[in-house]
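Q: My labmate handed me this sequence with no annotations at all. I'd like to see what the chain might look like in three dimensions before we decide whether it's worth expressing. Could you predict it?
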Amino acid sequence: MFGRQRPRIILKSEKDIQGMRIAGKKAAECLTWLVSQVTPGMSTQDIDDLQRQFAEREGVKLAQLGYNGFPKSVCTSINEVICHGIPSSNAILKEGDVIGIDVTLIVDGYYGDTCSTTGVGKIDEDSMRLLVVTAECTRKGIEAAKPGNHLGDIGHAIQSIAEPRGFSVVRDFVGHGIGRRFHEEPQVLHYGQPGRGTRLRSGMTFTVEPMINQGTWRSKVLEDGWTAVTQDGLRSAQFEHTIALTDNGVEILTVQNDQGLWEVPGHPNLDMQLL
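A: Here is what I predict for the chain of 275 residues:
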């Protein structure tokens, strides 16, 4: 009679979504600025310092700092690091590296969460292709996030781009609901079957953030308890947007334009011909 209840998905009002637009736009502004500062020879601690400068200048809060004990204000994930890389003065960026930068800001109680992977200086074609495919996975996943569709449609759309091109989709880390809390329901898997999973409804807000690997999808977490890396040591990339489902379809909240239109975070000129 008193069976296990499903976790509740919080549907957002237009007022909530407007608050999330403001937070998302600020997070997008911060991420774009951080990506533009990436250069060989800088440390990932330098990126964390820049993130803190931005928050102080703009009067916003850093969601990641201290969250469940995370020690820094931004995640910086180099090469084989899938996610949750901890900034360090000892982690020096080299020409040819790729680095994922994951920004989450709080503005007036609302969260904006976004991520981009960028090359450090000139990168090889295989790494550039990884970035392009990951960006396209993110775009296709967002396109599938329509009211009336299912969560499985999002994951299926992502797999349909990545796997035929020889890449794998990370299973161990997923997207998530977001709003006045950093992590809410639903969990958004980046793999799945069409027509399966929770039906999508207007008012839902969540992230789409596929992590795509050059080799195996399998990961392991290092002794620091945070840093997740590919098991085979090959490279990984990630792009992320926070989105809202509305009666008019899907709106991307972590963009700097005012129309909620698709943007590649921090990458206005990715060459999609490499698909």
